[in-house]
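User: I'm putting together notes for a lab meeting next week and I want to include a structural view of one of the chains we've been expressing. I don't have a solved structure, so I'd like a prediction I can at least talk through. The sequence is below, exactly as it appears in our construct file.
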Amino acid sequence: MTDLALLRWDKDRFILDEVAPGFTPREVLELTEMQITAAPDVKIME
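Assistant: Thanks for the context. Below is the predicted structure for the 46-residue chain, given as structure tokens.
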């Protein structure tokens, strides 16, 4: 978990599951320096 997103490890990569309010999955992917993949149903963090 970071300030911007909730990530989980799946086999050999991080998956983006949730983003902070005010951010889109695309913005988080662009701001992240490591390779991550967005889940098909990314949610907003509570």
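A couple of points you could mention at the meeting. Helices lie at 25-31. The longest strand covers residues 36-44.

User: Perfect, that's what I needed.
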